[in-house]
Write a structure and sequence with these properties.
about 40% helix; 20 helices; alpha+beta; 9-stranded mixed β-sheet; 4-stranded antiparallel β-sheet; elongated
Length: about 575
Amino acid sequence: MYVKTTKRENKSGTVRYLHLAHNEWDPVKGRAVPKVLFTFGREDDLDRDAVKRLVASLSRLLEPGDTLASTAAGDLEFVSSVPFGGAYVLDHLWRQLRIDKIVGRVGQPKRGRRRDMTVTERVLFSLVANRALAPSSKLAAADWITHDVHIDGLAATDDDACYRAMDWLHEVTDDLEKQVFDEVANLLNLEVDLLFFDTTSTYFELEEADQPVARDDRGRPLAEDHTPAGDDGEPADQSGFRTFGKSKDSRDDLPQIVIGMAVTRDGIPVRVWSWPGNTGDQKLIRQVKDDMRDWTLSKIVWVTDRGFSSERNRRYLRQGTGAYIIGEKLRSGSPEVKAALSRQGRYGEIAGNMRVKEVRISDTERFVICHNPEAAIRDQHIRQQLVAQLTALIENTDQLSEFKRGELRGRIADNPGLNRYLRTTPAGKLRLDTAKIKAEENLDGKYLLRCSDPHLSAEDIALGYKQLLEVERGWRDMKQIIDLRPVYHRLEERIRAHVILCWLALLLIRITETTTGATWPTARRELDRLHLGTFTGPTGLFRQVTALTKPQTDLLTKLSIPAPKQIVALEPTPR
């Protein structure tokens, strides 16, 4: 069965008529001849709605699969389908933050012809999207961009273009970070009165560290013609970028780099830093404060963990209008800690199953003791398990030789949890340290905070420090979702650029999460179900987006992103 067209000439010209017909064998003529079953009338007066109703009525007589096959155009070929929604949303957020405009203006020459950054901007966005959607090496990312995703304005790329974009990014990092922060602050109305700072490390599968080079106080290589001396006239530090240090991934056996990140109270990462792998935490906070001071922000209260609580760091953070909330080591044995813990007073109940008590032992600093009853029960349970294990280990050891007791003492010393509750008598006997056990009971569920801001309440200090978990969540997502490691780069500038790409990806992810209330893995999974199909036929090629589902529509609405056009591209066949 088919649609037959006939023509008839009249005064106004040629008129075409449409008929539903099929071929029947004519034994007299010895061939098939058309037989008209139904006449639709003139083509220019065709009732298309009536035709649709007829097709729908007939399709009910068929199985669903047969219906689809019968209504599909026989000359239309389905070529490919790629995920569309994730890159579409990230691209809109990228443009909402005006990062495309920022890339176009930073690093431009002050005089002369401006460089066209269109391709570089698209490649950089694609690399950021790759970290958020399908983390891979830059070579694999170029293949992903070319074959496995739709990036608006970038049909294909190669690894050389990716590396050129990264090299440019490394050159303009400082200006780009500052301008991105300004746009984020305006778009989200960020509260930056509290900035949370923490560091992590990431290791490399290398047998040897990088060759040491002279570095400035910021950990950056000095120029070859620069005098190898620091700002104070002392010899400059000599260190490789990937070098051995105290690993936060428990891989002290491998070279590493140190990465720092500043995060707002809402979990938005505003800046990231990279240092050689042997850089200590105590040195970093001072550089971070200087860098953020250059951004001319209003008063900032820095929130950091116990690793940064040195007198020099605290004095530095108090300079100007700055202030801090810093965790203090309860077991440091310092006079201030002892004085704070010995002060009497009542705890006040605050949110988050927490009790706080402020004690006055200094004119320049405030001390707040925080107590979590649930954490106290957990600490008590862990200690009881350790004491029971230690008791079993040292039971009947008085009968052992001095050498055997020494061996056991050495094995216990390798376990800090057990070693904390062990004491050795003058005669070399192994005993439980009951005084230490009782002292530890007094610390169950507690932690101590220092604060230099005279205006924050004890509750604000405690809750502010608790939000430091946002940085820890950022590190977890950096390593588990964005795949900060492994880093497929050897050159220092490429490694630094890789960290910046991960930061930009985390920034877009956090904005999505805080705006929609959904976790990024959940949103990504839903958005990746929105596909772009490519079809070809005699008249050309077109690309069409699948229909939006209710969850996809809700995500786009919350992010103030318009629904994508159904037909993304039309490419007629050249005549």
